[in-house]
Amino acid sequence: MVDRVAERLRLLASRTDESRKTRPIIDFDAHQIARRAAAESAVLLHDDRTLLPIDLAAVGSMAVIGEAVALAQSNELVVLFLGLPPSYEAEGRDRTTIELPADQMALVKAVAAVNPRVIVALSNGSAVSTADWRDTVGSIVEFWLTGQAHGDSIVDVLLRDVNPSGKLPETVPVRLEDTSAYLDFPGDVGHVRHSEGIHVGYRWFDARHLEVDYPFGHGLSYTTFVGYTDLHISVHDLDDPTAFTVSVTLTNTGSREGIEVVQVYVGDRSGSCRCLSENSEPSPKFT
Q1: Helix 150-158 vs helix 32-40: angle between axes, to the nearest 10 degrees?
Q2: pLDDT, position 286
Q3: Which of 142, 168, 173, 274 minimizes the number of CB atoms within 10 Å of its CB?
Q4: Which of the two residues, 119 and 25, has the higher pLDDT score?
Q5: Domain containing residue 274
Q6: pTM
Q7: Could you write out the DSSP letters of every residue in 70-96?
Q8: Region 219-242 average pLDDT
Q9: Is-cis flag, bond preceding 53, omega within 30?
Q10: Is the bond preceding residue 173 a cis peptide, omega within 30 degrees?
Q11: Radius of gyration (Cα) for the chain, nearest Å?
């Protein structure tokens, strides 16, 4: 028995001996696609058109802080990093609030009170409401959780190397109580009734005429894309898995390079989807 234990320990030591391992050579240049994807997917939620993108040559001083009021007061521009800690969002349990942590909300209000030129960079995996403090700051950029290139992608967006082109994949409510499933969770005796049926996401907010923090598909830009022309819709045969094809000519009418997400919204006017169960969701396809 002792010999077997000793042999296992020897084998473990051999497998975990760092001196015997060949360290991989990481080619960071080959991983720039992650940095570019992270930067381009950033969502510019709020912008007063005076702070972003940052022109370092025109800024005399800039404070990058957390999460401090005296520092904000003594600098021309503030970049404030906010977000959700791991304890706020995790698998296997529901969130009890869609607000930022109380200490962060107190911080952003205190900083904005002494310096309104505040750019907020958000890092979170699930939606947070900004309704309570949005109008006290100059700009808000939602960066989500972008992985290894997170810091680099933030620099790329804030310093205008990359235009934020992301659009919100969900509606951000003003309050948790405004969400469609609020009254059903956490359920009873391990059972949750999804009484909202197909009225999830933007369908719920539209049906109830509820004010939202930011709507599905929202996303600002450093440039402008107003030249939507030559719209064509080609309807396919009923047996085609793709319902129709949409094409459009898009023109960047601004002064900066950028990418735009063309959004197409599809609605059913025939009533044919009523034959589906209440928890089913019609899914028209388009390219």
Answers
A1: 50
A2: 37
A3: 274
A4: 119
A5: 223-287
A6: 0.81
A7: HHHHTSSEEEEEEE--GGGS-TTS--S
A8: 91
A9: yes
A10: no
A11: 24
